[in-house]
Design brief:
GMP Synthetase, Chain A, domain 3; 3 domains; about 35% strand; alpha/beta; S-adenosyl-L-methionine
């Protein structure tokens, strides 16, 4: 079968395979080919492969006896991977347990399998989990060349937003002053720093900030990131007028922090504002809120109106990329 493959020297093959597996990029139904001192690893999405890897097109054989959870169950279960933790979202505990057992029997690499037991809740945006397999909810997630240690029981993290985070980070220029107002464990702040920005990162969750500092060390950007635990509104006096780029990834309530964002913005600043809105009016409420907060001091230009993903029936997670230019 013709497929996109990552080509690496054989001595780098296992490390590369693990990296691609952690981001669910390997096509499990196709074999990995060894030829002329190189490994060819079939990938699901060549555009999502980190830039440090070479992607080529070639024919690879289908795996003769793939063992997926669907092979065991007789149906395709829904799950997502976060490092070596597999996450289910099943209302029926018996069905969740059956899927967890099938994952253990399959070729999916998993140390822990959990099922969502609550919605995201509280200021720290964590949720409860039913641990079905294993006992460790801490893991290391890899995406686009970065590593993020985290504990899903203590912090919020969504692997589904990897492509969106990459979209934003691709806009970052070296030398920028970035500010991540709700930083979590650093999935925006750390790749922004790797792109050459100096980043201030704030979060009210102490565990998230501890992991962010650890992750800054892991990714060799500790000197470029200043992490603060606490309400971002308390940092205005220290960072007023500094930011060239602001990330506001707090859907539902980001509008409550727009005055703070405007105070942090420099002479020219790009604001990445995340929102949850009805499908019939996805962007206008956020745009109106930004204009109300900023237009007395800035010219406001909406550069991108972007739908990130479906959030709930008839509701969408969206992002507005907005350029603020200070008025003369």
């Amino acid at each position: 079968m013709h497929a996109s493959c990552v080509r690496v020297p054989t001595e780098e093959g296992e490390a590369t395979r693990r990296h691609l597996a952690d981001t669910d990029l390997i096509v499990e139904s196709l074999d990995i080919v060894v030829e002329d001192g190189a490994l060819y690893i079939p990938v699901t999405d060549p555009d999502a492969v980190p830039e440090e890897y070479e992607v080529v097109e070639r024919d690879v054989p289908e795996r003769e006896t793939p063992t997926s959870p669907a092979d065991v169950l007789g149906f395709e279960p829904s799950y997502e991977r976060l490092g070596d933790v597999v996450i289910l979202d099943e209302d029926d505990p018996a069905r969740a347990a059956r899927i967890a057992d099938a994952i253990v029997e399959s070729n999916v690499r998993a140390e822990t399998v959990v099922n969502r037991a609550s919605k995201v809740k509280g200021e720290t945006r964590v949720r409860d989990w039913d641990v079905l397999v294993g006992d460790n909810t801490e893991t290391v997630h890899r995406e686009y060349g970065c590593e993020f240690a985290l504990d899903i029981a203590e912090v919020y993290f969504s692997p589904r937003l990897a492509t969106e985070r990459h979209r934003v980070v691709q806009q970052v220029d070296a030398g920028e002053h970035g500010f991540d107002m709700f930083a979590g464990v650093g999935p925006y702040a750390i790749p922004m720093a790797k792109a050459g920005a100096d980043v201030v990162a704030a979060d009210i969750n102490e565990a998230a900030i501890d992991y962010l500092r650890e992750n800054a060390e892991r990714n060799d950007v500790a000197e470029q990131i200043t992490a603060h635990c606490g309400d971002v509104r308390e940092l205005v006096a220290d960072y007023e007028g500094r930011a060239d780029r602001l990330v506001m990834n707090l859907p539902h309530t980001a509008n409550e922090f727009l005055d703070t964002a405007v105070a942090l913005a420099g002479e020219e600043c790009v604001l990445h504002y995340y929102d949850i809105q009805h499908e019939d009016n996805r962007y206008a409420p956020g745009e109106a809120a930004i204009r109300a907060a900023a237009e007395s001091n800035y010219n406001v230009t909406v550069e991108t109106r972007h739908t990130v993903r479906s959030y709930a029936p008839h509701e969408y997670n969206v992002c507005l990329d907005v350029r603020l230019t200070r008025r003369d």
